[in-house]
Amino acid sequence: MSSEGEAEYFCKDFEWEDLRAEVEANPSFAYHFESASSSSLQPPESDVEAWKQFHLRHASGKFFKERRYLLKEFPELLSCPPNSKLLEVGCGNGSTALPILRANKDLIVYACDCSDETLERAKEIISGASATTFRHRFSTFCCDLSTNGFPNWLACNPCRGQFLRNCLSDVREDNGLHFTNPCPSEEFDCCVGGVDFVTLIFTLSAVPLERMPKSVKECFFVLKPGGMVFFRDYGLYDMTMLRFEPDKQVGFREYMRADGTRSYFFCLDTVRNLFLGAGFTELELDYCCVKSVNRQKGKCMQRVWVHGKFQKPALSSTLKSIQEKQTGEFVT
Ligand SMILES: C[S@@+](CC[C@H](N)C(=O)[O-])C[C@H]1O[C@@H](n2cnc3c(N)ncnc32)[C@H](O)[C@@H]1O
């Protein structure tokens, strides 16, 4: 069992199925399995507006905790070729971006959020950590991934089309770490040429369920073939879900905090359907179940997160799946 601060590694302190049985047998949790009752909450103008207000209220930067465990969960971030590109989506104050920048001195990090306020804070925190080393490898932009998607300078339409046609000649499929750009040189006039990795760390749960498919597709479009999404988010029956009262429920497994920000709690099938539906293949997907102790209150808490790793197919795997469909057989 770990203390609250360090309790985030990919591990199994308990079986998720045991927790599920316990929760589903407890009548006091019954409202969590029903569709939303009539919520007394006045929805804010929009979920994005609620996040902007959230960041204005938390401008002191306290909403920042470096997520160092990510390097253990996603070691590809350390072993990728120099100048690989990462897009951190919904970066907040940079809790995910900073440990990655520290750990890999050759990675270029683009970070976006729907709030200008938090992007300013992320820049301050990151340049405060190392102004010289990070300046040329870290840039931010404001966007709402669930409605407008990512800007064209990240991956322009011709490049996106090229990615989709999977026009790659020498992508190796071993671990997805060897990419070839569709253009012959690393220099792109049109855009930065897409990214090798996308991190979605506690961001998708903040987006309303009906806009999640578009959000995941956007990530697919800007990834180079063979590129990967690293996903971590709230899991079904996490302690924080069970603490939501009935009037905070705004949809099935979807809750709204008093400040108007939302949180969805994922089961593995929902995550799988979202990513496979966008065209990804699944590399890893599991619950991370951690018992953590709040030393101050002396309470043991059962935390559940979903850990996922998904890959955008490259030419050879796409051809393989087309051949499989045509012949109705598995090609080995
Ligand atoms: C819980 S925070 C996660 C921050 C960060 N990824 C981390 O690891 O700590 C969720 C972030 O997603 C951002 N966000 C919410 N909806 C968004 C949207 N539609 N487009 C872009 N960012 C969004 C919020 O402003 C917030 O900073």
Q: What labels would you give this structure?
A:
single chain, 332 residues, alpha/beta, Rossmann fold, eight-stranded mixed sheet, 11 strands, binds S-adenosylmethionine
Approximate helicity band? 25-40%
Q: Please give the alpha-carbon distance between the first and last residues.
A: 43 Å
| CATH class category name | Alpha Beta
What gross morphology would you assign? Answer: globular
List bound small molecules.
Answer: S-adenosylmethionine
Approximate strand percentage: 15-25%
Average residue pLDDT:
85
* Category from helices, strands and their pairing: alpha/beta
Corresponding CATH superfamily: Vaccinia Virus protein VP39
| CATH fold name | Rossmann fold
Q: What about the largest sheet? A: 8 strands, mixed
SSE order, one letter for each helix or strand: EHHHHEHEHHEHEHEHEEEHEEH
Radius of gyration, taken over Cα atoms and rounded to an integer in Å: 20 Å
Structure in words:
The chain has an eight-stranded mixed beta sheet, sandwiched between helices. The chain has a three-stranded antiparallel beta sheet with strand order 7-8-9, with no helix packed on it. Mean pLDDT is 85; it is low at 2-7 and 167-185. The longest helix is centred in the middle third of the chain and has 14 residues, at 116-129. The chain has a single domain (16-27, 43-169, 188-327), classed as Rossmann fold. The protein is an alpha/beta fold. The termini are far apart. The chain has helices at residues 16-24, 47-57, 70-73, 76-79, 97-103, 116-129, 131-135, 157-164, 212-222, 239-242, 268-278, 315-327, and strands spanning 2-3, 85-89, 108-113, 138-142, 195-201, 223-234, 249-251, 254-256, 262-264, 281-294, 299-311. It is globular and about 60 Å long. The structure holds S-adenosylmethionine.
